[in-house]
Amino acid sequence: MQVLNIHGVDDVRLDPIEPPSPGANDVVVRVKACGICGSDLMYIKIGGIRRQPGGTTPLGHEAAGEVISVGEAVEGLSVGQRVVVNPMLTANYVGSGGPEGAFTEELLIRDAQLGESVLTMPEEVPFDIAAMTEPLSVALHGVNRANVQPGDKVVVFGCGPIGLGMVLWLIDRGITDVVALDLAAERLERAMALGAQAAFNPVESDLRARLLELHGSARLFSREAVGTDAYIDAAGAPNILPEVVSMAKYQARLVVTAAYSKPVALDLGAMLTTEMTITTAVGYPTEMPEVLAALPRIRDKVEPMISHRYPFEQVLDALKVAGTAASAKVMIDF
Q1: How far apart are CA 226 and CA 104, in angstroms?
Q2: Buried-most residue among 172, 179, 265, 318 (CB within 10 A)?
Q3: How far is residue 253's CA from residue 229's CA, in Å, rounded to a whole number?
Q4: Max Cα distance, the chain (Å)
Q5: pLDDT, tens only, 274-317
Q6: Beta bridge partners of residue 6, listed in sequence order
Q7: Which of 277, 276, 231 is nearest to 258 (CA)?
Q8: What residues does 333 pair with on adjacent strands?
Q9: Nearest CA-CA partner of 240 in 223, 224, 257
């Protein structure tokens, strides 16, 4: 077998590995599909996560596959079941600093728990769509943290896989006034196809003026504020938070889902007069079962979010494509 490992900064390789030997509490999943995540690219850029000197960081956590081995003490799981891995609840923290990563033919899930680290997937859903469960769960958690409802006006910064997932869930929730922002024309087109009210490049337009046009205005003491109710940051550009603070209306909400590597300065004086809320969202504490259950219904919307498909043998080429603005979700098929 092979596994995708980080050996150092920008040093990622397919390494040979022996098939896993499960213990009494473990299962082995034959991986059928695994998506490339932005965090995978970040881990490569920084040389791995929790990587010991001379060691490696195995990659891959957006996996769906088939159970091929079940430890004698594992309950509720059996050979042949089609499953999705919940990496946040795996004992070995698959693909994010643990000893296993899902870019491999056979994935060991230590201390496997049905309904927690391993979830059964709907029979009618193909493996590549099921592998979208993890990023769609991240997106849904961000939308949940924004506390939005039909009638709200929402702006999504960033139309990568997570931002597109947020557009999908917002529209699915009955929120029609969704504005999507990105620098790449291809991603803006995908956001419009998912049902965004408008999608444009904020660098090429006056963002405040366009949002006033689309979402209207609101008075805030002696100044005019933008009528947007909630902003979701899935881009991570350092100008986003200060810009939102400068134009936010009374009690507007901002959810940060993007990872920031450096501090961002904010005008707390402006925030004081708005009583706006800034919060964060990470992972998917409770959302994955809901996403899995919804996949048969939203499958036709999810499928176009996969922009590229590569066989596992070409995963190194796929990583290069995943780092380009023209890509959405890059899927590895086994």
Answers
A1: 48
A2: 179
A3: 6
A4: 69
A5: 999 999 999 999 999 999 999 999 999 999 999 999 999 999 99
A6: 12, 57
A7: 231
A8: 33, 311
A9: 257
CA 255/CA 236 separation, integer angstroms: 11
Task: Name the strand (E) or helix (H) holding 186.
Answer: helix 185-193
- Looking at the chain, the whole-number percentage of residues with pLDDT higher than 70 is 100
Contacts of 191 (CB under 8 A, 6+ apart): 156, 159, 163, 164, 167, 180, 182, 199
pTM of the complete model: 0.95
Which residues contact residue 96 at a Cβ distance below 8 angstroms, ignoring those fewer than 6 apart? 39, 43, 49, 61, 87
Q: Residue type at 179?
A: V
pLDDT digits (tens, 9 = 90+) for 98-140: 999 999 999 999 999 999 999 999 999 999 999 999 999 999 9
Burial class (CB in 10 A: 0-12, 13-18, 19+), 209: exposed
**pLDDT at res. 279:** 97
Report the alpha-carbon distance of residue 93 to residue 90 in Å, rounded.
Answer: 5
Hunting for tokens 């066989």 — which residue is that? 311
Residue 301: how many CB atoms within 10 A of its CB? Answer: 17
Q: What ranges make up the beta strands (E) of the chain?
A: 2-8, 11-16, 27-36, 57-58, 62-70, 82-85, 106-109, 118-120, 153-157, 177-181, 198-200, 217-220, 223-226, 230-233, 253-256, 277-280, 306-311, 329-333
Pair of tokens at residue 315 = 């995963």
Q: Choose among 128, 129, 106, 107: nearest CA to 117.
A: 107
Tally the residues of the chain: 334
Instruction: Please give the single-letter amino acid code of residue 89.
Output: L
* Distance from C-alpha of 250 to C-alpha of 227, rounded to nearest angstrom: 9
Residue with tokens 């049905």: 114
pLDDT number for residue 162: 96
CA distances from 134 to 152, 234, 282, 283 (A): 26, 15, 12, 9
